[in-house]
Design brief:
GO terms for molecular function: aldehyde dehydrogenase (NAD+) activity. The chain is built from 14 helices and 18 strands. 42% of the residues lie in helices and 19% in strands. The strands form 4 sheets. Strands 10-13-14-9-8-15-16 form a 7-stranded mixed beta sheet, with helices on both faces. It has a 6-stranded mixed beta sheet with strand order 5-4-3-6-7-17, with helices on both faces. The structure holds nicotinamide-adenine-dinucleotide. Nicotinamide-adenine-dinucleotide binds next to helix 7 and helix 8.
């Protein structure tokens, strides 16, 4: 395994040093080929996501393929302009000089992907790596094997190994790759493994982006439009059965609107997934038995006011809302990453915000209120990766909003132009006349 990793990095470095990937036309052609490859493989992508996670075709297309194609098109539209050297002013003490910033690729990048959006989270970073002119090795998650194989086959069909390659496998494969001297590491996954990746990167002083997880709160204040809040929380929480890094992890709701919101959430779940979700064949599954068991243990925390049933044979947990939760409950000690929503009630939001601030910085935060003063207060008081007001998830679908975490939810960001930036070194040059 180690030899294979070493050989791959050497082969890619030799290819990178030919300079071919530095040509912007070459990169544009590579991105166009990727687009054609995805179109050709579309049915197989949908099948793989169905096999691995029971994602319906509509959900798989909307939350994986469409996002990748959108990023591809946006990048193709802007790459010439992003890749061009940028002239900047020179300080007045040196009037005979000009200054220019040259974006240049790092070299050979490693992309390690998780299983929850196994297609999107491998190809999203790849678009940035290619756009910036790098070679890249992708290590997909072993927990979604059908998608991992398809990523391998698609990439092998579209690109020579010396340019873009996929190395499939489990932890040993990741470890072998992390021993090599890449020029950039882009990791998406858990905070725990993020620490391992950063330690390995430190050995060779490799710059990293870490897209990690955490517990993202959603707050519903007493003046919120409750029907809208319920709709948007249900969509954000139960997409992919809650296995979404930016899903609302838990809910803080003002006591005056608690009962009404819970009833709206109940109605919305029924509207979206049917009166009996256990019989809904297209509700996504929990990825494996280990995660199913971990999640099942939470079902007895507090009181299940909605849902609470599960089926181990089908790895199915129905959308569940837990009341009577305390900050010490087991469900509040780790990222849930499943269709279980604990609810806290408040009459004064301030102690709740203090509690959020005391805990690791969330990847996302969602606030439902019309009060601009409260919006301002929460945005200035709480540090978190990014989020939405009166919405969930959608901040991560905009090409114009860099997406990433802060503190234990990650470092660095990507999407849109930022994906190009993150895989580029900015070489600053001052040129003086004789
Ligand atoms: P994970 O950290 O277990 O695995 C991610 C990748 O790391 C996989 O390819 C895996 O093979 C590899 N890996 C696992 N153990 C390793 C080790 N000891 N050494 C080296 N590599 C190792 O994460 P996961 O379970 O696949 O994904 C779920 C987590 O990812 C959640 O915490 C979620 O919030 C987070 N996530 C974050 C984002 C984001 O954009 N911020 C997106 C999706 C998922």
């Amino acid at each position: 395994m180690m030899n294979q990793a070493k050989q791959l990095v050497n082969t890619q470095r030799t290819f990178f040093n030919t300079g071919r990937t530095k040509n912007v036309e070459y990169r544009i052609d590579a991105l166009q080929r990727l687009r054609k490859g995805i179109e050709k493989y579309q049915q197989r992508i949908l099948d793989a996501l169905h096999t691995d996670l029971n994602k319906s075709a509509a959900e798989a297309y909307g939350s994986e393929i469409r996002i990748v194609l959108g990023e591809l098109d946006f990048t193709l539209e802007h790459l010439q302009e992003w890749a061009a050297p940028c002239s900047v002013p020179t300080s007045s003490i040196m009037p005979d000089a000009v200054s220019t910033i040259y974006p240049e690729p790092y070299g050979v990048a490693l992309i390690i992907a998780p299983w929850n959006y196994p297609f999107q989270l491998a190809f999203g970073p790849l678009i940035g790596a290619i756009a910036a002119g790098n070679c890249a090795v992708i290590k997909p998650s072993e927990l979604t094997p059908a998608t991992s194989h398809l990523i391998h086959d698609l990439i092998q069909e579209v690109y020579p190994q010396e340019y873009i390659a996929v190395m499939e496998g489990e932890v040993e494969t990741s470890t072998a790759l992390l021993n090599e001297k890449f020029d950039y590491i882009f990791f998406t996954g858990s905070t725990g493994v993020g620490r391992i990746v950063m330690k390995a990167a430190a050995e060779h002083l490799i710059p990293v982006t870490l897209e990690l997880g955490g517990k993202s709160p959603a707050i519903v204040h007493q003046d919120a439009d409750l029907q809208l809040a319920a709709q948007r929380i249900v969509r954000g929480k139960f997409l992919n059965a809650g296995q979404t890094c930016v899903a609302p992890d838990y809910l803080l709701v003002h006591e005056q609107v608690h009962d009404q919101l819970v009833e709206q959430i109940r109605a919305e779940i029924s509207e979206k997934f049917g009166a009996n979700v256990m019989e809904n064949a297209s509700f996504p599954h929990i990825v494996n038995a280990r995660n199913f068991d971990r999640l099942s243990a939470f079902l007895t925390n507090g009181t299940a006011v909605i849902g609470g049933r599960s089926n181990r044979d089908q790895l199915m947990i129905e959308p569940t809302v837990l009341d009577d939760i305390s900050w010490d409950s087991p469900v509040m000690q780790e990222e849930i990453f499943g269709p279980i929503l604990p609810v806290f009630t408040y009459n004064d939001l301030n102690p709740m915000l203090d509690e959020i601030v005391r805990r690791p910085k969330p990847l996302a935060l969602y606030l439902f209120t019309e009060s601009e003063a409260l919006q301002e207060q929460v945005l200035t008081q709480v540090s978190f990766g990014g989020g939405c007001i009166n919405e969930t998830l959608s901040h991560m679908t905009s090409h114009y909003l860099p997406f990433g975490g802060v503190g234990e939810s990650g470092m660095g960001s990507y999407h849109g132009k930022q994906s190009f930036e993150v895989f580029s070194h900015h070489k600053s040059i001052l040129k003086r006349s004789k």
